[in-house]
Structure formats: C-alpha cells, structure tokens
Amino acid sequence: MVNAGDMNGSGNLMDFLDEPFPDVGTYEDFHTIDWLREKSRDTDRHRKITSKSKESIWEFIKSLLDAWSGWVVMLLIGLLAGTLAGVIDLAVDWMTDLKEGVCLSAFWYSHEQCCWTSNETTFDDRDKCPQWQKWSELLVSQSEGASAYILNYFLYIMWALCFAFLAVSLVRVFAPYACGSGIPEIKTILSGFIIRGYLGKWTLLIKTVTLVLVVSSGLSLGKEGPLVHVACCCGNFFSSLFSKYSKNEGKRREVLSAAAAAGVSVAFGAPIGGVLFSLEEVSYYFPLKTLWRSFFAALVAAFTLRSINPFGNSRLVLFYVEYHTPWYMAELFPFILLGVFGGLWGTLFIRCNIAWCRRRKTTRLGKYPVLEVIVITAITAIIAYPNPYTRRSTSELISELFNDCGALESSQLCDYINDPNMTRPVDDIPDRPAGPGVYSAMWQLALALVFKIVITIFTFGMKIPSGLFIPSMAVGAIAGRMVGIGVEQLAYHHHDWIIFRNWCRPGADCVTPGLYAMVGAAACLGGVTRMTVSLVVIMFELTGGLEYIVPLMAAAVTSKWVADAFGKEGIYEAHIHLNGYPFLDVKDEFTHRTLATDVMRPRRGEAPLSVLTQDSMTVEDVETLIKETDYNGFPVVVSKDSERLIGFAQRRELILAIKNARQRQDGVVSNSIVYFTEDPPELPPNSPHPLKLRRILNLSPFTVTDHTPMETVVDIFRKLGLRQCLVTRSGRLLGIITKKDVLRHMAQMANQDPESIMFN
Question: Where does the record place the CBS domain (predicted)?
C-alpha cells in the first residue's frame, strides 16, 4: 500500500489546488450567488491585506488604496450617472420640440433655448420668436389654417413613429436587455441572481440612446426608472475595474445598491430620496457602509447634474415649485380622497398591465415587438396631438399642473376672472372665480386623464426602455389639479359653509390647486409602486416644501392601504413574478405550518440524492455524475452507507478543478481517485496519482434538521441569502432544499402555479 510519506515527492502535484485557479468562485448565468461564501471570501481577502500591510511601506500603501477604492468607485459612478442624466435631459428637450418645429439660428436649440437667445422676444409672447418656426411655416409658409394644422399633425406623427421605430430596432438588434424599466431585474440581481449582460456596456450605451428616443416620441412613459438601470450599468462597469468588486459578487451588489441611489438622485434631483429608495424599494442587503457610500454617490451625481443645469432654471428638476399658502386641516379630507384614488388606480393599473403582459408572453403578440411599438406609438400620437395637455412632454405637463397661478402666468389653468380693484402683492393673489379658460382646461384634463390611464397600461412592458414614475405622477397630478380647482371654486362661492368659515375668508388666498396636483401625483405613484417613506422624501425634495410633508404622508399611506387591500404586490414585484425570477421578497409573510421534510428533495418515490464520497470515487465517476445531472452542487459524505455529511462541492468548481488538473498535472487520469480529506487515502501500488479537491469543498454548509418549521427555513433563506440548505438528522444527510424549492413551495401554498419559477 502507498502511504502519504511515499507520496511526498508528488505533493506539489496533488496540492496544486492550494493556489487559486482561473474562474474559481464565479457563477454561471441565471444562477444565484452564495452570500455567506462571498462574505467569507471577502473577510479572508481583507485579513490577508491587513496582515501584509505590516510587512512593508508598499504593502501599506496598497492596503490604503484598497480601503479607498470603494469611495473612488462611488465618485466615478456619481460623475458618469450625473453626466448621462444631463445629456439625456438636454437631448429629450431638443428632440421633443423637433416634432413641432426647428430653430433656424441653430437647429440644435430647443424651442425655449431658441427664444432665449432671440432679441425680438417679448415677455407676453415668450414662446413665439422669428427664429423658431413650426414645420408648416418652414415648408408651406403658413402658421394658421387647416392645411398648416394637418401638415403639423402629420409630421408630429411621423417624427414620433421614426423615433419609436429607431429605438425598438436598436434594442432588438444590439441590446435586448435594454428594454423595460429595469427595476424588477435590478431588484432580482441585488437579491443575488446572476443575469450576465444585463448591466453590460452595450446595454448602457443602447439604453441611454433609446431612452432619449422613446421619451421624445411622446409615448406614455418616463425616463426615471430606466435611469436607475443606467446608473447600475455605470456601477457594474466601474466595479469591474477593481478586483475587490469584480471578483466578489456580494461586494459588487453593494456598489449596485449605491448606484441605484445615484440613479434616483439624478432622475428626480432628490439625493436623500434616492438613498431611501435604494434602501426601501431596491436593495436586498444594505449594510451601514453602503448607506454612507450611497449618500456620497447620490451627492456627486446630483452635484454633476446641477453643474450641467439641463433645465436652465438652476434646479435639478423640471417641476420645481414654491407655494405661498399654508394648508389647512379641513383639506386633509380631499388629500385622503386623492390617496384612495391613487390606491385604486395602482390596483387597476397593476392588474390590467400584468394581464396584458401575460397575454404578450403567451400569444403570438409577443412575436411582433416592433409592430406593437409602432401601433401603440401611432395611436398615442394621433390621439395626443389635438389635446394641448397630451401633446406636450409629460414632464412639462406635470410642471404646469404643479404650478401655482401667479400674476404673470399665461396658462389656460390660470384664466381666472380678476377683480379690477385688487391691490395685493404678486405672491398673494386671492381665490377668484374660474374663467372660460379654466373650464375648457378642465374638459381637456378630464380627456387627458382617461387617455393616460388607458394608454399607460399598454405602453409599460413593451420592448423599449419605459419608466413608470412620470406617467403615474401625471395621472395623479391631473386628478389632483381637477380636485384642487373644484375645492378652490367651492371655497370661493360657499365661503360661509361651516368647513370653510374658520379658515377661508372672502378675498383670502385659501386653496392652492397645484398642491393638490402634487399630492395626487404622490398618491398614484405610491399606489403603483407601494413606496411610502422614500416617496414622501422624493416629493418634498422635488418641491422644496417641508411644510407639505403631512398632506403627502397622508396621501401616500392611504394609497398604500387601499392598494394593499386588493393585493400586496407592487408593480415591480408583479413583474418579477410574471418573469419567474427567483426573488424571495422580505415583505412577504409565510405563515403555513409545514416542515423542512415536506419540502426537501428527494421526496418519497424519487431517486436517491446524488452525492460524492470523500475518498472512494474516481475522476471518471465524478465526471459521469456531473454529465448525467444538472444540479448546482453535490453534498460530500463519508460513504454511501453511512451518509455522514462532510461538506458541499459546487458543480462549476468541480468541472474547473478537474479540467485544470488534467491540464497541469500529468498523473491525473480517468481512474485517479478524487479525495476531499486532508490526507490521501491508502492506495494499492502503481495506482495513478489521486486528485485532492479539498480546497473547493465547503466544510460548513448550512444545515437544518428535518423537523425545522418552513417558516424558519424561509427566514434563513431570506436573511442569509442561501442558495441551498442541507437537511440532516443526527449528522446523517437526508436531503436538500434549494431556493427554487422554497419559491415553489411558497407558490404552492399561495395556490399559484409552482412551475412559474422558471430559473435555477
């Protein structure tokens, strides 16, 4: 028999795995990462750097660079995300106006920029200047009349179709992952799922370009959700430059959480709201260190966007407003009513949109994504053009609805009948009776509301970048403004009613319709996404008014309560389930009285569990087992008779280890013994060299007993981010529970199709 002493000469061959080999510790596409293992590897790496830093000055400098690399990555993410957001805003502004006309002095100027630079612009006609010409003026020298209207109408539709076709073609050909909002997938990736290419360079480039095109086309979608995806692509790109993040999927996800915060920061000009959004809505694992770094990334991104100043108003957002009137307790009732409306709209939207997306997935409709985009764009443009509130970009619409009617406002919504004897300061205009412009605006807004509600259901989920924040806010802002005008007129004509008597005297500025629009926008966005804290913070950062936090909180909480009464899922969770991503939502409660033994595999009547033994299988046996099964890993036991658990070996690492051993170690052949123990087994003389694979063995796999309640198992999977958990009794292996098994079981308990969990 050959003992360990006789094999010392070949020790360097057997132990070659003590040095790491390429691709070890990486994961395959559509697989879940092992959070515990990633954390352990990072701790080992950090311990190694700390011990080496005491050896020399150079090693100490390297340890400092390693410590600072996280902040450097955050700085780079903030700079790039802010720059891209600024470029997108400027490009959208120009291309949206391009549908209606062109600037003769400089074609790259938007309508507003064109008239800013003109010396012939007056304040009353600030939207009209000779340098800006509509297409009818340029082509047939007519600005009024039926022929000019028809030509402008036709070219508006053509530009919209052109932008939409170009966007869907680019997505289809170059980056299929650039479609949609991106937030459901970001949530899934942050929970530990691998989707290769989803945060790649091509996706970043195509999403940035097509986002400009689709928003400019006038479709009922926003750029805010996709900006989170764009920022996460930036985060993924910069983390790949530093080995600390590129070689550790757990650390990479800390960077992506901070990048999501930077994305919301530039989307809404709300750095604090961005951090809270990442914490409340997107992130799965959010340690305190990530909170600080998210704050820094959001700050840098907001500062960069402010430096670019894309809206020319020295603000981070288009719809920044300031109100001059406080709110009153009696107004809480309409605010809560808007919250109820937001909750009902959220429920309606989620159910209808998911039904339509499911139909798209399961019928022939899904085979023609380009045709679907073209048809929806054509319908949107044809219906939107005649109504001035749907013709303009959704951001401009929200901006107008949020606005307080000052003395200098020329909007239809501010067409009130003025008292000729009024001698009040400009900022404090009393409530006045509505003029004909307000009444016609109410009709147009009512039609715009119905149109937005219906068209958004069909638009979200198409094969183009599409955000949901802005369309949801638009629906709420339209409803809120209409309610606000109604309350304002009621207070003006019936100021002697008991509800108005105490706080609304004749000639006072009591009701601000713009505030109702803002509360409605928050309510509808909350109803769709189920956000609460981050939503309120984002909204008050948008408006700069701390005074209005209570109305916003009341509306956000009410909309969440109402929407939750019909179903707990927000739109992003609903899309995660629709796509079958393996996402264990922390918010879901598991209350069923089942045990680990009910869920583990193998079940009764199934083939026994595929296992490896610690020192009695050959390389050929292991390769056959890998070839005949598709499991992600295998438990290692002492022997098939005893089934005493030793550890767990990952499939990918077994394949890589054997492949590397065959290339680098001459003595390894098909009948070489594979062993996972510290010392080699005793072998007959002239046996081929055994192969030591102890390095890839996880010696402390997570185990539970067969009588552990599933409630505890689900909690363990959520909080520790496990891939799999082994079931034992008195140290003897009984079975295995994977994340997919847990999701299947939860679906089964909720009377859903357990096979809807598509991925591993």
Answer: 600-664, 697-755
pLDDT of residue 129: 79
Tens digits of residue pLDDT in 422-477: 554 444 566 677 788 888 999 999 999 999 999 999 999 999 999 999 999 999 99
Q: How far is CA 482 from the centre of its chain?
A: 31
Contact between residue 449 and residue 409 where contact means Cβ atoms under 8 Å apart: no
pLDDT in tens, 498-510: 777 777 766 667 8
Q: Is residue 725 part of a domain?
A: yes
In the chain, the number of structural domains is 3
Same domain flag for 568 and 626: no
Which residues, 6 or more positions from 57, have their beta carbon under 8 angstroms from its beta carbon? none
Q: How far is CA 408 from CA 55, 351, 427, in A?
A: 71, 43, 10
Rounded to 10 deg, the angle between the 436-459 and 469-493 helix axes is: 150
Q: Residue 730 maps to which CATH number? A: 3.10.580.20
Half-sphere exposure of 747 (CA within 13 A, CB side): 20
Q: Which domain holds residue 445?
A: 334-360+388-416+428-573
CATH of the domain at 395: 1.10.3080.10
Is the model's pLDDT at 681 over the cut of 90? no
The per-residue pLDDT for 6 is 39
Q: Do residues 118 and 336 lie in contact, with contact meaning Cβ atoms separated by under 8 Å?
A: no
Rounded to two decimals, what is the model's pTM?
A: 0.89
pLDDT at 8: 34
- Asked if residue 517 and residue 605 are part of one domain, the reply reads no
**Same domain? 565 vs 646:** no
Buried b (16+ CB within 10 A) or exposed e, 638-675: beeeebebbbbbbbbbbebbbebbeeebeebeeebbbb
Whether cis (ω within 30° of 0) applies to the bond prior to 184 is no
For residues 711 and 624, state if they share a domain.
Answer: yes
Q: Which helix (H) or strand (E) holds 298?
A: helix 288-308
CA 268 vs. chain centroid, Å, equals 14
Rounded distance between C-alpha atoms, residue 82 and residue 521, angstroms: 25
Residue 703 lies in a domain: yes
pLDDT of 672: 87
Structure-block tokens of residue 39: 């954390």
Rounded to the nearest integer, the mean pLDDT of the chain is: 86
Q: Is residue 733 part of a domain?
A: yes
In this structure, what token pair is assigned to residue 426? Answer: 């400009």
Q: Where among 528, 543, 573 does a domain terminate?
A: 573
Rounded Cα distance, 174 and 208, in Å: 13
- Helix 57-98 × helix 35-52 angle, to 10°: 130
Q: Which residues of 696-718 are buried (b: 16+ CB within 10 A; e: fewer)?
A: bbbeebbbbeeebebeebbebbb
DSSP H or E stretch at residue 357: helix 332-362
Percent of the chain predicted with pLDDT > 90: 48
Residues 544 and 615 placed together within one structural domain of the fold: no
Contact 110, 94 (CB under 8 A): yes
**According to the model, what pLDDT value does residue 217 have?**
94
CA distance 492 to 505: 9
Do both 539 and 614 map to the same domain? no
Closest CA to 594 of 737, 752, 753: 737
Alpha-carbon distances of 578 from 283, 305, 346, 483, 750, rounded to whole Å = 20, 35, 17, 35, 15
664 in the same domain as 706: yes
Least confident of 22-26, 114-118, 180-184, 229-233: 22-26
User: Is there a single domain that holds both residue 532 and residue 618?
Assistant: no
pLDDT digits (tens, 9 = 90+) for 484-495: 999 888 888 877
On whether residue 342 sits in a domain, the answer given is yes
Contact 236, 256 (CB under 8 A): yes
